[in-house]
Amino acid sequence: MSCVIPKQEYFDRIAKFQERIKAAGLDACLVHGTESDFANVRYLSEYWPTFEQAGVFVPAEGDAVLLIGPESEKYARGRSVLPKVALLLNYRESAEPDYPGIPLATYDKVVKMAMGDKKLNKLGLVGTAVMTKPTLDAVASQLPGVEVVVADEVFRPLRWFKSENELACHREAFKVSEKAVQAILNEMKPGMTEFQVIGIAQREIYANGGEYEGHSLYCFGGDRTSNGISRPTGATIKQNEIIQLNIGARVGGYSSSIGLPVYFGTLPKEQMALVEFGLRAHKYTFELMKAGVEASSIAKDYEKWGCDQGWGDYMLYGPVHGLGIMETESPWIEKTSNYKLQENMTYQIDTFFTGNGYGLRWERGCIIKKDGCELLSHKFMDLDCCKLG
């Protein structure tokens, strides 16, 4: 099945963003993205840079302009929904070639393309966490006298609430992820390398309609299961230890991930107890997720429940984070989160515990509904799935 976001939906997003730009007292916003953190740019344009960086200049009134590096014009015009495209040197790849002979634009020319004769007085920056010094320097030198402010929060909430088209992409991404996980459970054996296991997942993702992995795919065992973030290596799969799987496909731009601990042989008693508790904590979190609930209360209730169960020392962070084009994105659910859940917000229920030389993560996505949450995967949610041999 092929899931795509219709072209008109991108222009509807830009129109909503322009209303927020006006309300914030800005004349325009400059949205930034990279090959690895591309979500903001893709959300507005469908463009996903490779090697280079990219941006979208969005005026409060006028036409949005896609900003790319010098090598990507043909690719960008073939992929982006935005007809206006400008090549800028500061979006070039990190090898920093000079590109002699290629005509390049500057930000003042971009302003003219987008706004005509209207004056740019106040510019908001979006994607500041990944915005590079060359881009900031170019803005300062090419737009003298323009007031520049951080405007991530002007844009970010637009991505919190998913359309039916976005939800369809998420649902399909989880179906693909389920097939990849099942193939691993069927084929993984002690003695395989972690890379070989990930190869099984990649095969299934691409064979079943995924456009890419949703994140760096996880397969690792032993002490590295206690890492909050890690990567697979050439280490071999061993018996009698936790092996962490987190497998996610991307479909139509939208990400997914399914995580569970598995093992061959027999786990030490304390590790098996954590596996069992982690699954109970995972399911407990489902009960807390529904529209109208204060986000901070979920994190507080989850932490109190875990401590009351005797596992407080194994907790690292809040139990839920946002899901969208990126597998991990705003908004998080933490004790400091000051907002209420609303319908059609999407999250990853990320149940991670770390012990002494071992840890585990149970994970899957959900859609917030009025009276609860719709799980994006119902598979691999019992202890029988964990024992492989």
How many strands in all?
A: 16
H/E element sequence? HEHEEHEHEHEHHHEEEEEHHEEEEE
Number of domains: 2
Q: Quote the CATH topology of the largest domain.
A: Creatine Amidinohydrolase
CATH class term of the largest domain: Alpha Beta
Which segments are poorly predicted (pLDDT under 50) over 5 or more consecutive residues?
A: none
Our count of helices gives: 10
Write the layout of secondary structure elements.
Blueprint: H1 7-23, E1 28-33, H2 39-45, E2 54-59, E3 65-68, H3 73-79, E4 85-87, H4 107-115, E5 122-126, H5 133-142, E6 147-150, H6 152-155, H7 164-187, H8 194-207, E7 212-213, E8 218-221, E9 243-247, E10 249-250, E11 258-262, H9 269-288, H10 295-308, E12 320-322, E13 329-333, E14 346-354, E15 359-369, E16 372-375
